[in-house]
Specification:
Rossmann fold; single chain; alpha/beta
Length: 271
């Protein structure tokens, strides 16, 4: 691989790194030479994921720290850990996200706080805490994981959509504010991706169908895209395909790109 795609000498902090998109990002970044700093809530699963990367990738430098990024004290502990490592942090991937799939009138304040704390507040605060480290590097980049749900209605419930719309807009604001600090900020508007979250959505669909509920568009609607007509498996995106776009946005090949949302949705948002 050409050196312009390599991440040697860079440290990448990835949240939600124990499974799904986060784990795929961590594995690919390790393969490209980055020092990978993995964060997720569950210690056992996170440690296993980190060990798996070290086993699969020769010479991988992988460190992990179990923490809940929706908790203020634990967020600070993450960056105290990074400071002690003295790692040259230049990449932040804000990947953590959750959802509560209920109709608007069924939601309560606890539901609202749970989704917004994880999907918006945590992204906001992780970015702020990372700022000093990224500024010190001088040529740094943040990628925030958004969703087509933040761009249009996809029947995932109102909380997920509004939280991802906020992530997209936050990325624009940070890109403007931090450009002079040498920090680029972009987001990806992900469509259906074959991850554990996707599997859970389809499990819910099955349960609703079994109970006689007919409006099961939560996942089926979102899985539609232009590319399903040319893909005989009619699949969603793979984690590897999503990671490839993130890698581009984080690389020097995208040094003139900031404040953008790249829709990695198989054409869903134009269909």
């Amino acid at each position: 691989m050409h050196k312009r795609w390599r991440l040697d000498g860079q440290a990448a902090l990835i949240t939600g790194a124990s499974a799904g998109i986060g784990l795929a990002v961590a594995r690919e970044f390790a393969r490209l030479g980055a020092e990978v700093l993995m964060v997720a809530r569950g210690e056992a699963l996170l440690a296993s994921a980190a060990a798996g990367i070290e086993e699969d990738v020769d010479g991988a430098v992988v460190r992990h720290f179990a923490a809940d990024v929706s908790d203020a004290e634990q967020r600070q502990e993450i960056f105290d850990w990074i400071a002690d490592l003295e790692s040259p942090l230049s990449i932040l991937v804000n990947n953590v996200g959750t959802n509560i799939r209920k109709a608007t009138l069924e939601l309560n304040q606890v539901d609202f706080a749970t989704v917004l704390d994880s999907n918006v507040h945590a992204v906001f605060e992780m970015s702020r805490l990372a700022h000093a480290f990224l500024k010190q590097h001088g040529s740094a980049s943040i990628v925030n994981i958004g969703s087509v749900s933040g761009l249009t209605h996809v029947r995932t419930g109102p909380l997920y959509g509004l939280s991802k719309a906020a992530v997209h807009q936050l990325s624009v604001n940070l890109a403007c504010e931090w450009a002079s600090d040498g920090i680029r900020v972009n987001s990806v508007g992900m469509g259906t991706t074959l991850t554990p979250m996707f599997d859970r959505a389809y499990e819910i669909i099955g349960q609703r169908r079994a109970s006689g509920y007919t409006d099961t568009g939560i996942g089926l609607y979102k899985s539609q895209s232009l590319l399903q007509f040319s893909d005989q498996n009619k699949r969603g995106s793979t984690p590897a395909e999503q990671v490839a776009v993130m890698l581009f946005l984080l690389s020097q090949e995208a040094s003139n790109i900031t404040g953008s949302t790249y829709n990695t949705d198989g054409g869903f948002t134009i269909f």
